[in-house]
Amino acid sequence: MAGVMAPLMLHGRVAIVTGGAGGIGSAVSRHLASLGARVAVAYIGDPAPANELVSGINDGYLRAEEEEKRGPRAIAVEADVSDAARVRALFDAAAAAFGGEIHILVTTAAVLDFAYPALAETSEAAYDAMFGVNARGTFLCCREAANRLSRGGRGRIVTFSSSGVGSLRPGYAAYAASKAAVEVMTKILARELRGTGITANAVAPGSTGTPMMYTGKTEEDMARYIAEAPLGRLGMPDDIAPLVGFLASDAGGWINAQVIRCNGGTI
């Protein structure tokens, strides 16, 4: 069994997860840590959720003597991903905490206008906020990763799009456009990284039961989302995290320049 599982393990690798204390991000952070990675949980705003997440991860792994010698499994780092200097500082913090080399970047940080306005009613401020984090933030993090991730064949970039890109659901025009930018950026980046051993793929979740999903929606709205789902339920963050772990591992090393729609069959 150990031989079968080995390609999925991430021992000795360092990961940065933006939005790492959010609904999907926290599941991804926990899952990567469970596979053996050291994880820098990037957050913005209230530090309490990130600190609680990191404490939980470390409490679970710092009991063994060997873990005590190697230091914490996770750290929390405040980082505004729309700010290039803060992104550089995030990578610097991860490198300093975990020994210098960084192997994995996962960009789950995202902003959505919870009023779900039609395009004709979308404010410039809302548009700028969504593109600032979703597109610019991904760009800045990927640019840093392209220059700093390990070249030893273990470098992995996993960006986050949304199945909403293909759904053409009213009220999501600016958000879906920002995520479409992520998809194109990721595919081109994968080709530009030829020869480095670094892969770049995007994960596009469908409707997932996170605080972001529930905000601004009525019970009728949620019932409609569930009724549209072929599997009869919303996705959960723990449905998404194993895909990220797979793409980050040696087992996923032949997957590159792809957008994988992890959505239970919804459009």
From TrEMBL:
InterPro entries: KR_dom, NAD(P)-bd_dom_sf, Sc_DH/Rdtase_CS, SDR_fam. Residues 13-206 form the Ketoreductase domain. Keywords: Oxidoreductase. GO terms for molecular function: oxidoreductase activity, acting on CH-OH group of donors. The keyword Oxidoreductase applies. Coiled coil: none annotated. Belongs to the short-chain dehydrogenases/reductases (SDR) family. PANTHER family: NAD DEPENDENT EPIMERASE_DEHYDRATASE FAMILY PROTEIN, EXPRESSED, NADPH-DEPENDENT ALDEHYDE REDUCTASE-LIKE PROTEIN, CHLOROPLASTIC-RELATED. This is Ketoreductase domain-containing protein. The lineage of its organism: Eukaryota, Viridiplantae, Streptophyta, Embryophyta, Tracheophyta.
